[in-house]
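ESCALATION

Customer reports they have been waiting on this structure for their group meeting. Please prioritize. Original submission:
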Amino acid sequence: MEKVAAIVLAGDKRGSISIRNDNKAFLPVQGKPILVHILRALGQSPSIGKIAIVGPEERIRGTLDESSLDEKIKNTIRIVPQRENLLENSKSGFLATLESLPPGTRFNDLYNTDFANTSVLLLSSDMPLLTSYEIDEFLKQADMEKQDYFIGITSEKSLSRYLPDGNQPGVSMIYFNFKEGRLRQNNLHIAKPLKVKNLKYLEIMYELRYQTRFRNILLLIVVLCSTGGSLFSAVRYTLNLQISRLLRGGPHHRLYRYFKNRAPLEGILRCIGKILGTRIGTIETHYGGAALDIDNEKDLEIVEKMYEPWIALQQDYYNRLK
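Update from on-call: job pushed to the front of the queue and completed.
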C-alpha cells in the first residue's frame, strides 16, 4: 500500500471537550502530551507519509520543539491553524497534505480534479495508547477502490482486556448492540474527503456523538428527519440501537435480542452512506488503543496508571500474530 497522509485533529473550539480546563491533546501521560504519543505511533508506522496537525498553532509548535520526537518524524509534520469546527479543520488539514496547490486554493476548488481520489487518515488527538501496530492493521484493510470512507470499530471482546481486574483499575466502555455483535466505534477514519457529498452531516454527527445522552438522541432523530430519502430506515435503526442498549442486562432477554437483531451493521452502513452521499464501510481493529480515548478525568488517571502494562498487552498481541 502507498503511504497515506494523516490528519491529527487537535482543535479546541466548537464540539471539542476539555479535561482539567485544557485541550486533551496537551494533557500529559507518562510525562508526555497525548499528542506526542500519537505522533510517535504515526511516525513508527511504515504506512504513514505526511502528517498535518490542526489546532492551536503556537502551542503545537512549542510542544514539538520540547518533545524528544525523532527529527525524521518532525520533518514530516505540518502545523495547520485551527478553524471554528471539526469540518473546517478537516478540510484545512486535507489541503495541507497535498502537493503543488496554487496559493489560495480552497477545498471546494478540488472537486472533479485528480485530488478527488486522494485518501487521508483522520484521527483524534486523545488516544495515548494508540500504536503503530493498530494504525497498520487498519490501513492494510482499507480497500479504497471498494469504499470511499472507512470507520474504525473495535469489539467488546478485544476491549475486555482493559476492564478492571482484581485490584487493577480498568475502563468500562459503552457499546452498540448490532446484529453482528457488541461493537464500539474507535477513532481511526480513512476517507476520500472529496467523495463525501454531504460533509455537513459529519460535523453534526460528531457534535451528537455521545449517544447515551437523551438530548443527543432526540437531536440526532431530528437531524435524520431532515435528510430526506433514508428517513424511515435511519430513525428505525437509531431506535433499535437505543432500545437494545437499554434492555441489555435486564430481564427482557427476548426483547433485547429482537431489537439487536434488527440493527444489522450492513444495513446501518447503507443508511449512513445515503445520508453522507458516499460509499462507506467499517474496519475492525483488535489492539484497542484507538478506542481508548480520554473523555474524562477518571479515564485519564486510569490510563496514566495502566499505560505501561496496556502498551505491553498490545506488543504481546502483535508478537503473537507474527
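Sent to customer with the following note: Strands lie at 4-9, 28-29, 32-33, 48-55, 77-81, 120-124, 149-155, 176-178, 181-191, 280-284.
Escalation resolved.
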